[in-house]
Amino acid sequence: MDIYNEENQMPIEECSNMLIIAYSSIYFGASDELVKENYDLLKTWYEFLRDATLIPTNQLCTDDFFERIDKNVNLSIKSIQAIKCFSLIAERFGYNDDKDNAVNTLNEFMNLFNELFKDSTHLPLSYYGSDDTYSLKYNLAYDKILNTHLFSEKLLNNEINHYLTKVK
Hey, is 126 helix, strand or coil? Predict the structure, then answer.
């Protein structure tokens, strides 16, 4: 009996979670040891995110309360944050080539993200989705919590202002 079903996996979500939590642990004062011991695994997860590209394909994620969301913007935000976290981990341990690779990936992803949404009043639910869609982009919170400064204040304010129009 094959109990592993590829359709029920969340690789971008889970790789991102592990990179963010690994960096968060040392950012908030935990010992580097566990993160250092698992650096190769963290690098593998980063490489998966890099190769998965900025715009995620139709895969399961924690935003899927009703159905899968193809090209989910919030999932993309999480992967961007995770790549930033990996670059900071690599830098902390002196893996400068890995840090530079991650920073290059991050710059590529951020340039595309910013270009795609430069004229938006808010971020839609999915890439290439209509402007009348929205979702709570809770993955933006990592940018504030970890002081990574990836997303502009204008984008963050646009999101908040749009949410406020939906509160009843």
Answer: strand
Q: In Å, how far are 27, 43, 101, 132 from 40, measured between CA atoms? A: 19, 5, 15, 42
Q: Contacts for 126-133 with beta carbons within 8 Å, 24 or more apart?
A: 126/69, 126/70, 126/71, 126/72, 126/73, 127/55, 127/71, 127/73, 127/76, 128/71, 129/71, 129/73
Partner residues linked to 126 by β-bridges: 72
CB 150 within 8 A of CB 81: yes
pLDDT in tens, 14-47: 999 999 999 999 999 999 999 999 999 999 999 9
Predicted model pTM? 0.93
